[in-house]
């Protein structure tokens, strides 16, 4: 790239769409406005990913979407270029969404007609709609907090309502903790493979993430102690139950060891319990073992529905709640009263519990498909998780594997999205949920099993 074109970046409008569609829409706007001229060369995907703070797979999917719209064309060994108008008119129209979309980590949708009727009744039965259209209390109404405490009680026990806040989703919760309790340059420890959304937030806040090594029981506590001795660690961020991406669950013994180090070093814990409701028998949460030093975040996205943007946070004490509410007021102001009212009603009437049980049941069924289809030892997962970690056989490069699968209509997340300070392993994460049917998942798994056969060099040939 030469001249000013090398500085082009998509301008995201934050319209609530998936990021890859936001990027594709930005390409389309800039092509139509002339900001991206005919034959202009787009930046490499990795350049865009680094500048926007998103993972490479997201940008790759955006470029694919833009190409399907007839806007751009990729040339092997040369790059990606804006098509001429005549070429755009004759381009292949956009395809329907990939049925083999295993990229976004969403729960399966086992909404039986009877459950859907109960959900709909909960929405239609909202009382006093005018009051829900007004400004509300920061941190949630007493009714919303009480419902959250009830929902969290199996994992946190009895929880004082002044220690519970309601947020518009887990990402907003994490943002507010970092906004209220960190400064640029602070050191934050986490798993060496961690949630990409937290990586992006840490980058935005100028934090230094230190990825700690993992084993089958979770983070190595001695490595955490060493990191604390090497630098002033401000926060330990963890996804301790069914870790995204590896599905590792931190053992009770390891939780206690990590808490011991955190107390000795004066480190607060941020527990992202996104998947904590899924296991039938869960381990004690960090918030239950160490309530005085733990911020516990639990949303309904992974256990009821990804579109229900409601999260609950328990905080160590009242003064922390005040700082978090201040951060919330400067970002989202407060959680949507209508959405929160729906969540509250669904929890009170048992609808949320019914949805959770449906997700658990469907997840177990899909994990059985995995066990019957994929080679033994090729993946790591848990029967109660709707994602899995696929370790690639010798000869496969993770990016070549992702590209190969994309050509077959299956999308996955490469390990680069999750790696913090270590070299990304040759692995990908697969999601078994979302709108895909069980039959769709079976088809995608069959494609994956065939792709894992020992002939990867043939798949990457260019003729």
From TrEMBL:
- Annotated coiled-coil positions are none
The UniProt entry, under Pfam families, shows: Aminotran_1_2 (PF00155), GntR (PF00392)
Name the segments for region: Disordered. Answer: 85-104
CDD domains under this entry? AAT_like, WHTH_GntR
The record's listing under InterPro entries reads: Aminotransferase_I/II_large (IPR004839), HTH_trans_reg/aminotransferase (IPR051446), PyrdxlP-dep_Trfase (IPR015424), PyrdxlP-dep_Trfase_major (IPR015421), PyrdxlP-dep_Trfase_small (IPR015422), Tscrpt_reg_HTH_GntR (IPR000524), WH-like_DNA-bd_sf (IPR036388), WH_DNA-bd_sf (IPR036390)
Residue stretches making up the HTH gntR-type domain:
17-85
Keywords attached to this Swiss-Prot or TrEMBL record, sorted alphabetically, are: DNA-binding, Plasmid, Pyridoxal phosphate, Transcription, Transcription regulation
Family that this chain belongs to:
In the C-terminal section; belongs to the class-I pyridoxal-phosphate-dependent aminotransferase family.
Q: What's the protein called, per UniProt?
A: GntR family transcriptional regulator
């Amino acid at each position: 790239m030469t001249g000013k074109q090398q500085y082009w970046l998509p301008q995201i409008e934050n319209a609530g769409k998936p990021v890859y569609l936001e990027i594709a829409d930005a390409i389309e706007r800039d092509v139509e406005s002339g900001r991206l001229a005919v034959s202009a060369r787009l930046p490499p995907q990795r350049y865009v990913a680094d500048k926007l703070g998103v993972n490479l797979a997201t940008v790759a999917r955006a470029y694919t979407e833009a190409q399907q719209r007839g806007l751009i064309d990729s040339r092997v060994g040369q790059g990606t270029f804006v098509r001429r108008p005549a070429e755009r008119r004759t381009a292949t129209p956009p395809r329907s969404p990939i049925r083999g979309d295993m990229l976004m980590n969403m729960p399966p949708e086992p909404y039986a007609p009877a459950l859907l009727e109960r959900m709909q009744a909960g929405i239609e039965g909202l009382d006093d709609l005018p009051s829900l259209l007004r400004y509300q209390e920061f941190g949630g109404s007493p009714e919303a907090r009480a419902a959250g405490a009830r929902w969290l009680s199996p994992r946190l026990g009895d929880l004082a309502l002044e220690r519970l806040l309601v947020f518009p989703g887990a990402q907003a919760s994490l943002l507010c903790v970092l906004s209220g309790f960190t400064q640029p340059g602070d050191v934050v420890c986490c798993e060496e493979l961690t949630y990409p959304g937290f990586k992006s937030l840490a980058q935005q806040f100028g934090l230094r993430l230190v990825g700690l090594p993992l084993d089958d029981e979770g983070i190595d506590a001695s490595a955490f102690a060493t990191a604390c001795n090497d630098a002033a660690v401000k926060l330990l961020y963890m996804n301790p139950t069914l870790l995204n991406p590896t599905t590792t669950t931190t053992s009770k013994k390891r939780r206690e060891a990590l808490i011991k180090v955190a107390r000795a070093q004066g480190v607060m814990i941020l527990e992202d319990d996104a998947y904590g409701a899924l296991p039938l028998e869960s381990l004690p949460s960090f918030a239950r073992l160490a309530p005085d030093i733990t911020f516990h975040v639990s949303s309904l996205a992974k256990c009821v529905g990804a579109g229900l943007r409601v999260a609950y946070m328990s905080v160590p004490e009242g003064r922390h709640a005040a700082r978090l509410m201040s951060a919330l007021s400067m970002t989202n102001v407060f959680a949507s009263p209508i959405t929160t009212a729906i969540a509250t009603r669904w929890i009170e009437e048992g609808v949320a519990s019914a949805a959770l049980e449906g997700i658990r049941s469907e997840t177990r069924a899909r994990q059985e498909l995995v066990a019957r289809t994929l080679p033994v030892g090729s993946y790591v997962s848990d029967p109660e998780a709707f994602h899995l970690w696929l370790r690639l056989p010798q000869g496969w490069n993770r990016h070549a594997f992702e590209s190969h699968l994309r050509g077959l209509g299956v999308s996955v997340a490469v390990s680069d999205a999750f790696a913090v300070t270590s070299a990304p392993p040759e692995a990908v994460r697969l999601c078994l949920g979302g709108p895909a049917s069980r039959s769709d998942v079976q088809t995608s798994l069959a494609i994956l099993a065939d792709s894992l056969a020992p002939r990867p060099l043939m798949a990457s040939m260019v003729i």
